[in-house]
Amino acid sequence: MITLQNVSRWYGQVIGLNDVNCTIGPGLTALLGQNGAGKSTLMRLVTGQIKPTTGELKVFGMEPFANPEVYRRLGYCPEIDNFYEHYSGRDFVRFLARLDGMSASEAKIRTEEVIAMVGMSDRANRKIQGYSKGMRQRIKLAQAMLHNPDIILLDEPLNGLDPVGRREFIDVLGGLAAGGKCIVVSSHILFEVEQMTRSILLLHRGRLLATGDLRDIRDLIDKHPHKIRIETDNPRRAAELLAPLPNVVSMSFDRKGDALQLEVRDPNSFYDSLSGIVLEKQLEIRSFSSPDNNLESVFKYLVEA
Ligand SMILES: Nc1ncnc2c1ncn2[C@@H]1O[C@H](COP(=O)(O)OP(=O)(O)OP(=O)(O)O)[C@@H](O)[C@H]1O
Predict the structure, then answer these.
(1) Which of 2, 49, 69, 133 could hold 44 in an S-S bridge, CB 3.0 to 4.6 Å?
(2) Taking a C-beta distance cutoff of 8 angstroms, is the pair 133, 160 a contact?
(3) pTM for this one?
(4) Coiled-coil ranges per the record (predicted)?
């Protein structure tokens, strides 16, 4: 549905997207990258708001810039909110349906359909100004679906959502993708994307660093020693019990003496062994965390790999 061939976009002296080649088809694809990676630039290019400086961009086989034929089949949820806050969600969506050219009765029917698709039927009469972030995202998505587009792009839709809201919204997106739509979602948070899809485009400083299955990238990361921090009242005992495990590469104590830092290979099998030891030897652990489980580490691994 979307193809980019050697697409670059410059903003004066600044490069927003650098020689990107990719195709995006039906299903849910995540654009993953840190701030400034080029995610919004790619979305603005695909939605025809800006033109590539060089290269060829096709959406449904056509150039999207200033092309209403493409716009009719695209839905877009920008990162910013731009609602009439004193409208109810239902009135807002119906108003946009009318702007889209639907008759009053068509607009009424279609509004109910899209509001139901995003699970807002029972709450859409409340004023938008009192909505949670999750409800705002749902209404934004509802209005983007009014004209039944084949491609829907959402810029950082999970920002600020609590875990329940995030799960629910991901389920709504998953449902649309399963129905054959092409859903493109940008995010800068790795674990958010992992909950959402396996299909990713990894952007870094305007370049496409990796595409495909997130699990392959995970495997690549897991080949490197993985840092794990275990907080416990007795780090020495923890060290004694964990040192014999085959995947532990190194260990050090935290200066305050209440944590153990480890480097392990194959973190999943380490976690399996850890839970066995905790139960069998009654090792008390307050918390454990993996400072490596973030996007920066992914880039570090990929760039250095
Ligand atoms: N209108 C603009 N004028 C000048 N530079 C821009 C403009 N828009 C984006 N850029 C630059 O292009 C690069 C890519 O920005 P872009 O907004 O696409 O990244 P992003 O991944 O969406 O990041 P963010 O999550 O911060 O929006 C950045 O270096 C940014 O500063």
Answers:
(1) 49
(2) yes
(3) 0.79
(4) none
> Cα(36) to centroid of ligand 1, in Å?
5
Structure tokens at 220: 């690549």
> Which pLDDT score is estimated for 222?
66
Domains and their CATH numbers in the chain? 2-220 (3.40.50.300), 224-304 (3.30.70.100)
What region, left, alpha or beta, does residue 138 occupy, with left being phi > 0 and alpha being psi -120 to 50 degrees?
Answer: alpha
Read off the pLDDT of residues 236-278 as tens digits, 9 standing for 90 and up.
Answer: 999 999 999 988 999 999 888 889 999 888 877 888 888 888 8
- Residue 42 C-alpha to ligand 1 middle, in angstroms? 10
pLDDT at 216: 78
Ligand 1 mean position to 26 CA, how many Å? 26
Tell how far the Cα of 54 is from the centroid of ligand 1, in angstroms.
17
Q: In testing the pocket of ligand 1, which one of 4, 7, 9, 14 has its CB within 8 Å of the most ligand atoms?
A: 14
Ligand 1 pocket list (CB less than 6 A): 11, 14, 16, 33, 35-41, 188
Q: What is the pLDDT, as a whole number, of residue 181?
A: 92
pLDDT of amino acid 236: 92
In the structure encoding, which two tokens stand for residue 151, read together?
């491609």
- CA-closest residue to ligand 1 atom 25: 35
Find tokens 């200066």 and name the residue: 255
Give the ipTM of the model, two decimals please.
0.94
